[in-house]
Amino acid sequence: MNDPITRVLRAPAPQARAAARRFADRAAAEHSADLAYTTVASPLGELLLVASARGLAQMHYLDDALEAALQTIAAKRSPRIVESPAALDPWRRELDEYFSGARRRFEAALDWESMTAFQRAVLRATVAIPYGETSTYSGVASAAGSAHAQRAAGNALGANPLAIIIPCHRVLRLGGAFGGYTGGLDRKHYLLELEAGLSPP
Amino acid sequence: MKSGLPPFQVLLERHSEDVWRTLRAMVGTQAAEDCFQETFLAALRAYPRLRADSAPRAWLLTIAHNKAIDHIRRSARERSSEGVESAGEDPAAPDDAVWSAVAALAPRQRAAVALRYIGDLSHREIAAAIGCSEEASRRSLHDGLETLRGLL
User: Fold this and answer.
1) C-alpha closest to that of B114 among B13, B11, B27
2) Full domain range(s) for residue B131
């Protein structure tokens, strides 16, 4: 079967792309997909945002390939993940406001489910550090109820699934040294300057 | 929480055009949209149970085939009670003759032709999708092609 029949059967179907987008948006809105994602441009580079039915589940600096990042999420959380920019709108809006200096607190829902109890305690203590202020690893560890677990607190902060939104950049070493930051120290510096009301570098 | 399966979005992007083409051949452009949405919704629901080593393309086209057959049965019932609805191809398309010929095939022949020449499925996969023996699916394909050639 050479001929016009194959040619017609296999003719391009440009409608398929729009239909696929409609499907993904609806699957995300109705939560038949477990997770929805989108990528967002920011002053600190491209960000990957992932939401579940509970709220924002992950936000990472997208320094590596998107495919690899999604594959990891599929393996760790659920392969039922679709791309839907609309589903991430609430958080994208708040991020834009934050980077423009107009927002000091994030309010849209977060998904704390995938964390261990200790990590959740550390990250909740981190969220409580006010905008424009900083704390220390031991400060956060005590606020989480384990004053001596500084190192564990540092690990919990390093594994923060919600960069920027859970402000682990506000946690410094005792004495004011910068400490680490998963996204790189330049970004930590940028965020602290932004929150201090200085024009970022 | 199954490891090894690619993100569903990958399947959606990789196979949506072939799913659409298969549905277009089986139910026409008009009905393809609804069948497409039903196909991917059913696939998404069942996805975590898919074995990581199975062929997602044949799996998706099998679901698409089932949704198309559901649609064909439904509209046959509606037609017999209300006497409406054309096969649904785009009447403005220049390839009208081919679409009319395809629409005139018996559903099983149409399915065999679509799964073979759009989906590139093997005879075994086609038989599994249609739910018949390999022998019967070969015969449907052969008869479908004969009919198409005769009509064109």
Assistant:
1) B27
2) 8-151
Nearest CA among A97, A105, A139, A99 for reference residue A122: A139
A69 touches chain B (CB under 8 A): no
Pick out chain A residues at pLDDT < 70: 1-2, 199-201
**Over 50: is that where the pLDDT of B24 sits?**
yes
Cβ–Cβ gap A23/B20 under 8 Å:
no
Q: What is the pLDDT of residue B84?
A: 40
CA distance A27 to A15: 18
Are B47 and B6 within 8 A, CB to CB?
no
CB contact (8 A) between residue B20 and residue A70: no
Q: Is B2 a domain residue?
A: no
Tell whether A77 is within 8 A of chain B (Cβ): yes
Number of domains in chain B: 1
Which residues of A carry out catalysis? 168
CATH number at residue B33: 1.10.1740.10
B48 and A73: CB-CB below 8 Å?
Answer: no
Which ipTM did the prediction report? 0.91
Residues of A whose CB is below 8 A from B45: 32
To the nearest whole angstrom, how far is the Cα of B46 from the nearest Cα of chain A?
Answer: 10
| Angle, CA A161 vertex, CA A187 and CA A146 arms, to 5° | 100
Task: Kindly list the structural domains of chain A, giving each domain's residue range(s) and its CATH number in brackets, ordered by start.
Answer: 3-99 (3.30.160.70), 117-195 (1.10.10.10)
Size of interface A-B (CB pairs under 8 A): 109
How many Å lie between the alpha carbon of A20 and the closest alpha carbon of chain B? 6
Read off the amino acid at residue B82.
E
Alpha-carbon torsion angle A158, A160, A161, A167, nearest 10 = -130
**Cβ pair A159, A151 in contact under 8 A:** no
